[in-house]
Specification:
Layout (H helix, E strand, L loop, with lengths): L46 H6 L25 H29 L2 H13 L2 H10 L3 H16 L20 H7 L7 E4 L3 E4 H11 L12 H17 L3 H10 L3 H18 L1
Antiparallel strand pairs: 1-2
Helix pairs in contact: 2-8, 4-5, 6-10
Length: about 270
């Protein structure tokens, strides 16, 4: 069967807030004459939200010190990016947050965790191919083994059975391109999707060919895919409501905060 690029591939898996880490990131400050330190953002995450984030897949990707040279993204489209950030924020407040809050109120955490596991399991082919392209056959074997075990014994990935022996190795095509020194291009804030780059956007489209669910066929396949991706987003946001609320209240300039965290994300990925 020939895979055709569906419009749904451009539907984001996560809204832009999900690019933010679960905790503040320690950074090395350059030597200065003054002893006064700039305040750092510390999300006021509630106990319930903190408990929700105690999942292997939700670990902070920026928790360790980054020794690599920090990624700095050019931002020639800042006025347009700021506009889309505001639009995304409004959509979150009027659509996503109410949906995620209601969903969390009626769906128990173990069920939501299982759904999250299932969607992460569908990303293992991406980790497999990316690991091979990066010359890491052992990591590719781990990704392939996890996909096989969790898809069968783990009941379509609902249970992370393989996680008891092998933790997930998160590798993406964007990371692969970065390690090959492909420039990221300008910083982008996409409608609904959120922070990205030209390189990251192209990598996301390419990863769509590695997602098993994108090979669904039939008259209702587009509607099914739309529902699946929307459900994934709502499920993921249900774990991070308090964190997002804290960010919106604490950040003086959300645009700068989001961009800096995205740059740290790229820096961390390239250093892995």
């Amino acid at each position: 069967m020939i895979f055709r690029v569906r419009p749904i591939l451009f539907l984001p898996l996560l809204i832009f807030f999900l690019a933010l880490p679960s905790a503040s990131v320690p950074t090395q400050e350059p030597p200065v004459l003054s002893t006064k330190k700039s305040p750092s953002f510390q999300p006021d995450i509630s106990e319930a939200s903190a408990a929700d984030s105690e999942i292997d897949y939700a670990t902070d990707p920026f928790a360790e010190e980054v020794s690599e040279e920090k990624v700095r993204l050019s931002d020639p489209l800042e006025p347009v990016n700021r506009l889309f950030l505001k639009i995304n924020g409004v959509l979150y407040l009027i659509v996503m947050r109410p949906a995620a809050s209601g969903y969390r109120a009626v769906v128990p955490k173990p069920i939501r965790t299982g759904i999250r596991n299932g969607f992460h399991n569908l990303e293992e082919p991406i980790h497999f191919v990316s690991s091979l392209l990066q010359g890491k056959p052992r990591d590719a074997g781990v990704a392939l083994g996890r996909f096989f075990v969790n898809s069968t014994v783990g009941i379509a990935g609902f249970f992370d059975v393989a996680g008891k022996h092998r933790k997930a190795i998160d590798r993406s095509l964007d990371q692969t391109f970065a390690k090959a020194d492909v420039p990221p291009g300008p910083y982008l804030v996409l409608p609904i999707s959120g922070p990205s780059t030209v390189r990251g956007s192209l990598a996301s489209v390419a990863e769509g060919f590695l997602q098993p669910i994108n090979y669904l066929s039939g008259d209702d396949s587009e509607e099914i895919l739309t529902g699946l991706y929307a459900g994934k987003t709502v499920n993921e946001v249900s774990f991070r409501i308090e964190e997002i609320d804290s960010l919106s209240k604490s950040s003086l300039d959300p645009y700068v905060t989001v961009k800096e965290y995205y740059e740290r994300k790229l820096t961390k990925e390239k250093g892995r």
